[in-house]
Design a protein that fits this description.
With 149 residues, this protein is of the alpha/beta class. The chain is 24% helix and 13% strand. The chain has 3 helices and 5 strands; from the N terminus they run βαββββαα. The chain has a 3-stranded parallel sheet, covered by helices on one side. A two-stranded antiparallel sheet has the order 3-4. Strand 1, helix 1 and strand 2 form a beta-alpha-beta unit.
């Protein structure tokens, strides 16, 4: 199973999850963290579970994660009481940092303490890492314009 962690406003991520559905892709948005069944045990990852589209799945069944979310914003949480959204968004970001960090080699773009979607790399570096992880990609091309004085 492939998890695509993204904003609920990320239409590209939703289309990608739909396109990869037959390969086991599932879209996970911050709202999905508020459902019963999540269990993160850092000292016993074999007992950890995630909830994807209402289904409780063991962590070992997740083959890979692509993160398109830098952090959880208050806008992602319309189901949370407005006065609690700032706190919950901070807690969800911290949880996702711990959860993604616990997934050994299964996260394409490893989180950093300041960004869930990893380091600020250019297209070339991301393409290199995607190929290294086994993804097929289109060639990356950049056009440079001549510098004029």
């Amino acid at each position: 199973m492939i998890v695509i962690l993204a904003s609920r406003f990320d239409a590209s991520a939703a289309r990608l999850a739909e396109r990869w559905r037959d390969r086991g892709a599932r879209l996970l948005t911050p709202e999905g963290l508020s459902v019963r069944g999540w269990c993160h045990e850092s000292d016993a990852p074999g007992r950890s579970t995630a909830v994807l589209h209402g289904e409780v799945v063991p962590l070992r069944s997740i083959d890979g994660v692509l993160t398109r979310l830098s952090g959880v914003s208050e806008d992602e949480l319309p189901h949370i009481v407005p006065s609690e959204r700032a706190y919950v968004s901070s807690e969800m970001t911290a949880f996702l940092l711990a959860w993604l960090s616990s997934l050994a080699g299964r996260v394409l773009n490893r989180p950093t303490p300041v960004c869930l979607s990893g380091p600020n790399w250019g297209m070339e570096q991301w393409a290199h890492e995607a190929v290294r992880a086994g993804f097929r990609i289109r060639p990356v091309r950049r056009l440079a314009r001549a510098f004029q004085c």
